[in-house]
Design goal:
The chain is 39% helix and 37% strand. It is α+β, with helices and mostly antiparallel strands. The chain has three domains: 36 residues; 95 residues, Translation Initiation Factor IF3, CATH 3.30.110.170; 113 residues, Protein of unknown function (DUF541), domain 2 (Alpha-Beta Plaits). The strands form two sheets. Strands 2, 3, 4, 5, 6 and 7 form a six-stranded antiparallel sheet that branches. The chain is elongated.
Amino acid sequence: MEQKKNSWVSALIIGVCVVISCVALACGLSNFRSGSQHIISATGSASVDFDADLIIWRGSFSATDYSSKDAYATLKSNATEVKNYLVGNGVSEEEIVFNSVDIRRTYREIYDDEGKYIGSEPEGYELTQSVVVTSTNMDNVEKISRDISSLLEKGVEFTSDTPEYYYSDLDALKLDLIEKATQNAKERVDIMARNSGAKIGKLKNSNLGVFQITAQNSGTSTYSYDGAFDTASRHKTATITVHLDYDLK
């Protein structure tokens, strides 16, 4: 009798466990279904070709002499020649900035009769000064940057850098691209929903892609992970992407 009682209790416990497990599984599936969401996503893009409206040209010149005083006198004379050259070629004084003078001590290496290096001794001073031209007259500054022969002929050791090109209203251009890329992404979502018979709900998430500025016709190979910003080309292309996620009703 006791053995039958124990068997009945064991069967009851097993039955209760089975029922509890089924209830838990049913609740889990119910929560899974109610918590699941159907999303439709699309990435839109927009690009525009534009021309820079500001040019920055940098150059530098130097002078060397045994004393820093004499080297500075030469450098000062060179600065006057550079300024006269720029102003004489249509650059206004307001567009010219001379930076501070960099002074470096120079040394001469000494070798013995057998050609073995034994040390160095002071030889003089080298002074260098840079100049920056910022202008909207890009054609003129481009021409000047390519032709510095007159300065070299006057003994000015002038080094010309490659001009840099910028756009002064970049923020407005970027906002316009964001608007167009967002519209493009929404249009793609609408097309996908319409052709699949789905109904679009609320916007769930949006992400702004990296803003890229590259030289025109350079292709996507010039894009970078954190955003390209070309300054070497006068003719540029700006591109941006926008990603949208929508719930489905």
